[in-house]
Amino acid sequence: MALQIKLRTMSYLEPLIFIIVDFYAAIIEFFSIVFVKRRPQDLLNLSNFAEATFSRLWLIMGPTLAAKEIEMGVPKLVASASGTVIEIGPGSGNQVGRYDPSKITKIYGIEPNRGLHDKLRENVKNAGLSDVYTIVPCGVEDVEGLRKYGVDQQVFDTVLSVQVLCSVPNPKETAAALYRLLKPGGTMIVYEHVKSRDMISSKVQDMYNIVWPYLLANCNMNRDTAQTLREAGDWAKIDLRLPTEEDDALAIPRIWGHLTKAS
Fold this sequence. Notes:
Strand order of the largest sheet: 3-2-1-4-5-7-6
Structural class: alpha/beta
Shape: globular
Number of strands: 7
Strand content: 15-25%
Distance between the termini: 48 Å
Order of helices and strands: HHHEEHEHEHEHHHEHE
Helix content: 40-55%
Radius of gyration: 19 Å
Largest sheet: 7 strands, mixed
Oligomer: single chain
């Protein structure tokens, strides 16, 4: 019992670390704009300021999250991607070194945050994927923007989403759009944090979520992403690992696995 209480408490404090680092990133971005770039008028564009702040946050916290993903088996998930792949929200490129190049024909990284592109390109190069990896600088909801890069419906063998569906503006519409991008028989690979089924943890999530989306690029802690994915289309097979009772006691439980589109 004492151990469970300790684990809960540590888990409930974990989001505070992100909030503290986010404030630190915001301060650094503020000083950069005002004293380095000498463009204080840029502070009036709150959307750009928030995006730049999140870029700094992700560059700081990304490696820590990537290390934690190893414990959760994410590298094995990513390595199962094959053929023509669309990666949603690759960020700074935490996953690019986990692909199996022998299975890959082409990868499209859908990343609207341009502040992360330089680090993403660096990681793509280090992974030896420069010849097959294309960065697409728009959101998955921007159909016309995607088409300019050859991203169209029913052309992808694999869709990869690692901790992204928490932050898209319209999760149901996005999940349905991702389903449409898949070829018949194609696979969606997901690793996402979700709403807890534990009464106490879900209340903690709801409390954090009052400010969480505003500080972390619209990330929501309390989405039922598993259900959203199930309802996205006609799946031939759904192999999702749902949180255990112990996982649900945490502030940020996760799901992961594969969904195969019907042929």
